[in-house]
Amino acid sequence: MEVRHNPAIDNSSISHQHHPSSPVIAAASPTPKHPKPSSNTVDSNSVSQRLHKELMSLMMSGGDLGVSAFPEGDSIFNWIGTIEGGKGTMYEGLSYKLLLRFPLDYPFKPPQVKFETMCFHPNVDQFGNICLDILQDKWSSAYDCRTILLSIQSLLGEPNNESPLNSYAASLWNNPEDYRKMVHKQYFVGEASES
User: Fold this and answer.
1) Catalytic residue numbers?
2) Confidence check: pLDDT of 14 > 50
3) Residue 129 CB burial class (10 angstroms; 0-12, 13-18, ≥19)
4) Residue 126: CB partners within 8 Å, gap ≥ 6?
5) Phi and psi dihedrals of 61, rounded to 5?
6) pTM more than 0.90
């Protein structure tokens, strides 16, 4: 049986009592019982689908560029990434591991990214935190994991010394020989401690 609202009859003042023997007929309500999700709300299925697409895209092209990433364990929201030091940079020949944690509202919010491998760099602190504008105030939902990894790889060879997290590395940047020694020293000390 279909109940239709008759605007000529106003039942708002009528008290309805339910008796166990009588059927309950629900009147159409002008407001839905469940609030509409906001336009910024993303369900975890769509985020998961996007991350799967990004993973496939990265697997098809990332290795050629010196970047890769794969989910860590069973969660598509936690990845381990790898970047190779760019040719012609002081990081050439070195491979860095990163942790990527994607929020449930990705891609509207950036993932948390930090170095797992010790990295001596002006824009990386001793805990592996990275100062990179696209991971903060310059984030765009158009960016993907590949873009993030390539940006970090580029940052290795082109630091922003105006906004250093590691002021010692920033001050040493203009002395390539000493800088390279520190890069290798921290890298290999970090590798030894991971073993």
Assistant:
1) 131
2) no
3) middle
4) 166
5) -130, -20
6) no
